[in-house]
Queue: 3 jobs
Job 1
Amino acid sequence: MTPRSLIAALASAALVVSPAAASAQSGGGSLPMPPPPPGAKAGAHKPAAATPAPAPTAKPAESTPAVGTEAPPADKKPVAAEAPPPVPQKVDPAVFDKALQDYFNGDPRAAAGPLYAWLQAAPKTDDNYAWGQYFLAKSLIDLGLTHAGASYLARIARERSNPNVIPRALDALKQLTDRPHDEVMIDEQVFGALDLGFLPEETGAYAHYQQGLVDLRVGNERWANTHFAKLSETSAEASHAKFAMLVTRLKQVKEPTEELITDFLGLSKDEKLTREARNEAALAVARLRYERQDFAGALTAYNLVKLPELDPGRASLYLEEAWTRYKLGELRASLGILTTLDAPSFRDEFLPDKYLLRALIYRDLCHYLPAKRAAKELTRRFADSLEAVRNRDDLTQDMRLRRAANSHGGTMRASRFVETLDLEGERLGRYAGSFGDRLFTHLTKLYDLSRAEAVRVYDARLSDAVRQEADTLLRAAEQVRLMEYEVGLKLYERVKKGAKIVAPEDEQLLTPDSVAFRFNGEYWNDELKSYRVSIESRCIEETP
């Protein structure tokens, strides 16, 4: 089996999965906040089209020539001086109350522009300044501009001008971590650098977990243990922290112990974790048992992975199970799983090992011509990518390798964040009129700068990821070439006198509660794991 690096896969899973965000605190909580203005309606915030009148712009003062200045020569044109920045207009304090009224009436579109205008004019020492940032962030998030909203929430956490607003801002930020987000701004600069003494229990637990992850990434395991030790044993963060510590411990040992596998197995049944996290723990058990040559135990662990009903599943999971069944000698079951991987749901997956495994199965059954065709299928299907590797081209421009790199790990998260910024940047154009020139210009610049940085991070991760995928492809192609040579020798091998065909294996009979149908080329999601291939062995048993 030639899967992706085991430790790299587990480390990626450990840092991808994060605890489910707790529900946001209601407006009637114990934390003080400005009450809604008189006449505000209570209810769900539903964006409504409302365009506030744009604020008048200041007329720049006309410049007068200074006394005693010398006129420029006739042959030289005077250099135009840069215009001074416009002076912020004073905003009536009643604008803040009116914006809050619009927000509580369910019209964040009308509230966003006035809130930004008020923040530009109000001093940062104002008691309501942090509340203005908070409600502007909530308005932007309600309108689908989550990154812009997150930037204001992060600003509240960094400035800490109003202790009453910080827990609400952190709680709103924690909810945004379930979707593509700026990992540096939120995970590292906010939760990874917080003073944890003043936080509520739930928010503090999440901050301890994130700070422990940051310490693990830089190799400070002792500091990470200090943060993880403060987590309640009954919290989801504690289970996620245990998974991250197990992955770190796995990097430090040459041979995984049974105790380590048992710890992963316990996490696979931990109901405090999300289904995705439990599946990752079960996959860790299966991969570790496979490395220890415990193929039966690995197959049992693969069956612990629970997918949503009618979900087609993961192509990599099916391929790993096919390798496990091949090692157990279940060639027909393994070939059936490879038939599953030919389904339309998986045809774009980057699985070069699939063709190698199919060739191995045909070879073991002495079907040499099908084995040779299966081996050639790999070099035919990936011909363009192999040519790009040989020519030392820019591998990030190869669509097949690029798609494979974007399908997992940090590259996948960076790609999704860039897509989110593109989507929200297009959505921002809808609010150009209602936001006013000042807020629209500010948000346009914010998204442009954020996207440039996100693309830089994505390109750096993509460059490393495509090299790893290219190495996987080259290893599979090399093994396939050896396979073709071996099969070619078998084709022309003389059969000794007295040799006879190996007795066929007894096929497993159907039970009374099972039904078998002949495959007609149609794929159904509820049948993907039940394909079996009936194929006879052509191998010859030589008599002594």
Note: The chain has 21 helices and two strands.
Job 2
Amino acid sequence: MLDSSLLEQLRSVFGALENTVELVYENSSHEDQKDLLDMLQSVASTSDKITLTQNASGTSPMPQFRIDYKGKPTGIVFKGIPGGHEFTSLILAILNTDGKGKLLDSVIADRVRRLNKNITIQSYISLTCENCPEVVQALNQIALIHGSLRHEIIDGGYVQDDIKSLGIQGVPSLVANAKMFHSGRIQLLDLVAKLESTFGVDANAAPSEPVNKNLGHFDVLVIGGGPAGASAAIYTVRKGLSTAMITEKIGGQVQETKGIENLIGVTYTEGPQLAAQLNQHIASYPVKVLENRRVKKIHTESKVKAIELESGEHLTADAIIVTTGAKWRELGVEGEKEYLGRGVAYCPHCDGPFYKGKKVAVIGGGNSGVEAAIDLAGIVREVVVFEYNDQLKADKILVDKLKSLPNVSIVTSAKTEKIIGDGNKVQQIQYLDRSLNKEEKMDLDGIFVQIGLVPNSQFLKETVELTKFGEIIVDEKGRTSAKGIYAAGDVTTTPYKQIVIAMGEGAKAALAAFEDRMYHS
């Protein structure tokens, strides 16, 4: 049963519904069926536009329901009880079914409609997974737009035989035709591309809008929507400059951050919450936000910069502030991609429970690696931390905590060379003991990669000067080697990759762009 305060919130949220959304449940003898019905009845009680009915012709071995709209299935099916992080997925699915809430833009929608017909996708999830809702919610929207795509959200706790037979060791895992085609977090743009390559597209389907669309001219274009980008956009628009923002998703890398305790003035927050606050702050200003976009190329031949997007859209700007941040660095060794989701993982919070009672490795001895090892030590039988250098790089307080744990060991001077499996799951790690120049192997069940970040600067290789590590070289005011192009945050050479620093650097770059426009143009 949902508590009264949550029910009151849902009444307010569902007040926007105009048409009837039907929750159609299957009959089941499973002991959790009552819990599912209690939840669905509570949700339905908050709006006369939500009905709860039983599918008289179907039975299910587990709690299960689908969402119908105007008497027809939408393609969205929940197998399990969508509690935990997935409760939000249910609420958004109801809203989106009636065309409410935040919908996918026309460019993405056109690509979805061109996917071939009659597709079924199973998303195997865990209710404790923090990455799963983003993927589930994206696929639900895709199902609504596509029209003949069935998306089954499956709580892996109910189908352990399926988990075993499919070799799933990470969530979310996406399966079609009894074969896993993706595991782990994935951005919407990459998800759509993955669906296109997996299921094919109808080349004859015409887009609803011109592909080569001119988005207009702006005084400033901010590329990136994380803390640095949000700060830059707010500062430029407050200076009276027309501002646009190109981003894959508001929040950027912050979305993947668990606890944040060092943002001055905020005792504690979490990544998704901070990302939502950034979004809210940006939305309070006249910033033209273009999400789910990537920049393909920047033309700097004239004073006014011309920007091409991968979507085929284009725009111009007098100044550009790059705040594209960084992404998790991959090992780049044999076996890493082959065993992703089957023993190779990047999120200990999401995938750690799959390794209960097993032996795992954490690659990386910095703060993120040591924090991951500490978290995993409370779940798994044994954790081995591998560090390339001769000592761990993490803060002393974290290292001391790690060393106090009885089921953790540390291997230093270790260069990971290969991940070995049996075709279904990881079995060994092969590494070079750099101190002895000797190759070693260790038996284990899983590998969590935590080796830092790589800057998202690939699209700027021919535009601004980069370091050998891909960082954008900036001066004390965030100026790059190209006039009128500025940069801030984790994508730059600015030391100490911290949220609070990125925010300050974003503001600094914005003020520099304003100053140069006023006094040096």
Note: Residues 344-449 form a domain with the FAD/NAD(P)-binding domain fold (CATH 3.50.50.60).
Job 3
Amino acid sequence: METQAQWMRQLMNGGMFGAMMPGAAGTLPGVDAMQEFAANAARLQAMWTPGGTGASDSSGEDLSDAAAADPAHSAAAAAALADPSKWLAMMEGWTKSVPFADPAVQQSIWSDAAQLWQSVLGGNEQGASSKLPRKDRRFADPRWSSNPIFALIHQTYLLMNERLTQMAGDLDHLPPEKREQVRFATNTMLEALSPANFAATNPVVLERTVETRGANLVKGMEHMMADLKEGKLTHVDRDAFTVGENIAVTPGKVVHETPLYQLIQYSPVTPDVLATPLVIFPPWINRFYILDLNPQKSFIRWAVEQGLTVFVVSWKSADTSMKDVVWDDYIRAEIGAIDHIRSRLKVPSVHTIGYCVAGTTLAAALAILARRGEAEKVASATFFTAQVDFEDAGELLHFVDDNQIQLIEGMAKDGYIDGRVMAATFNMLRGTDLIWNYVVNNYLLGEDYPAFDLLHWNGDVTNLPAKWHSQYLRDLYKDNKLVTPDALQADGTPIDLTQVETPSYIQAGKEDHIAPATSVWRIMDHFQGPMRFVLAGSGHIAGVVNPPAAGKYQYWINEEPEVTSLDQFREGAVEHPGSWWPDWIEWLHSHGTQTVPAKGKRAPGMLKSDQCIEDAPGRYVKSR
């Protein structure tokens, strides 16, 4: 494989520059520019080859030295890249190698490719990008369309993408779950093969490299080396945010602590507060401060401002001390937090929120409380993008057959799974947005990292207890046992979701790919109590973290009492602009409006006798 240093030497020779940038054909960089190119190529070579030994191909030849010594080699490489027929031949080779492509389909693809070639090169004058048959935001920059070579490259790729995706979806002889796995694998491969992801086939990168004399690639290599050291792809400026200083800053105190979680109580800002407090259970797959990114976006701060006494569980990132933690422990933790709050504030019940996997766990906890005759401990339950029925659980199902689970189990170390593994899995679900977009910007264009709080949170990974993770994937995702009454038990009590009669508010994201709305809806099929379903615009994060002041997105409500399916809900739903948070607080008030003064233990740490552990956000959220 050619290194970036090789590619820069090809640029220095002028052949590739002339081929790819016809307007500059016949010109060579000046002496000063050539010296800058050479210096940056040397820097790249030093970073690319540990010890300065050079990168070799399978024959042992030092590729970069060969490229430097043989200008003809560079010119030939540039000519091959610029030859449109090479791209058509490459596509033909790919389609022939696909095991599920029959000869008739291959012939059809080749015929379509030949027509595309003729159309793009024969009928697409420079700048006539609107005439190109296929559109994709990865190739929206005019430089992809104004040059016939790049137009052909990306249009050929999009044709290949379209046809291979169609072929993967037409495998009717495979079971649906296997067909989806093939489709997902094909899409993942195609995302990786995009010509936007390679310096030599991306006109934006090529032009940037010429402009900066290769400094962009040097900076990009520095980014890549740092990421290799960290073991994960960086999305954001590492130094832009510090938890507790400019992110997760809502004032409060840690009022309770166990080996599994810290319980944070937030300081009131209203003279009176709702008598029934609220406890939020965020997913332990991520840090809790997705609900407290900054004062403008913070659901926690907003809830406090609405006159609620707000508690949040901050889960501990798994380490060797948690090697025996299983799902029962998280269910006990949620029930334990509820009991601690009731005892601390001397109240009979609490309002609860469960987000994602913590919402699944909350559903199980409610079923256990109902079976034990203790359902009154929870006045209401709200579910943010949470699933209990995993039959239609979305793209994560691609990772839960026996082979995949065994592979994940094999990644466990000292009883826990490194959070970077889960981060990579979630990134793969949206490879273009969360992987390749950053490869292009960070590694090829050498852009500075943005200071974006949501991306900081996304990269602040948590480790997971290996036993819990395996149990969760097998019992819930793979075997879908939670919806079968008494098929599972926790803490010695069988779980039957049909016994849950707690008033519930169920929020789903219209574009959620982690917990699809069709899957979240199924809570409605199992709970027996009064339920309100809201379909929010956007996805798993933005659909939840959508403060009213932002004026973004929308949500849908269907007030008809006999709605029995999501399709029926959508047909009769009324669209409301903006955030669904005000609808939620109105619903919460419908379950009790009594207030009490915001003093005593309602204001954590204000009494001398209230021995709090530490200030929010606490130690656990900072542990790595």
Note: The CA atoms of residues 400 and 418 lie 18 Å apart.
